[in-house]
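Model the whole thing, not chain by chain.
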Amino acid sequence: AQKITQTQPGMFVQEKEAVTLDCTYDTSDPSYGLFWYKQPSSGEMIFLIYQGSYDQQNATEGRYSLNFQKARKSANLVISASQLGDSAMYFCAMREASTKNSGGYQKVTFGTGTKLQVIP
Amino acid sequence: EADIYQTPRYLVIGTGKKITLECSQTMGHDKMYWYQQDPGMELHLIHYSYGVNSTEKGDLSSESTVSRIRTEHFPLTLESARPSHTSQYLCASSERQGWQETQYFGPGTRLLVL
């Protein structure tokens, strides 16, 4: 089974509207972290938001919020008031504590991404 | 937030040439990573390091090699470039803060091998 599933290859949203990008994950590890990254056409990966498996509240960072539904194993990214500069690929990723090796490395698995286009 | 740099940003090179992709970070992070990403696809880990003189292979087999002689520097080398190496290469570093350990990425190097 895929560790991280992003079912929307592409999304369109009207400028100033809110948009939700879906992410579901698969793990039996009670301790894990979920991340969202933005990748503009220029190629760099920009960290947006983090949610820990033990966090009681949904993470928020400015216009970004993470709708964390632990029982459903979903971690959807919500972007409020979309801007033209939000057009990019968005990747969901997960780190599992159980993958930690002797060097302290914990494996991070990335989804296949969702391409968001904001329409003026 | 990490300051992490990669050079060159773009590289077009002929088959058989030796290339080194540079990556450096100024935050003193112990862990560093190299990912390979084809256009519009997910990232695949090819190398990582959890400190000076430590390097490990990632999930995706790669003909490239890495070294970690200094904390801030994690170069990737291809001894003989081939068209199949054409891809984007992203370098990252991370530091653990409590439960959270976030990877911060450099701008990437887009490699085209002719």
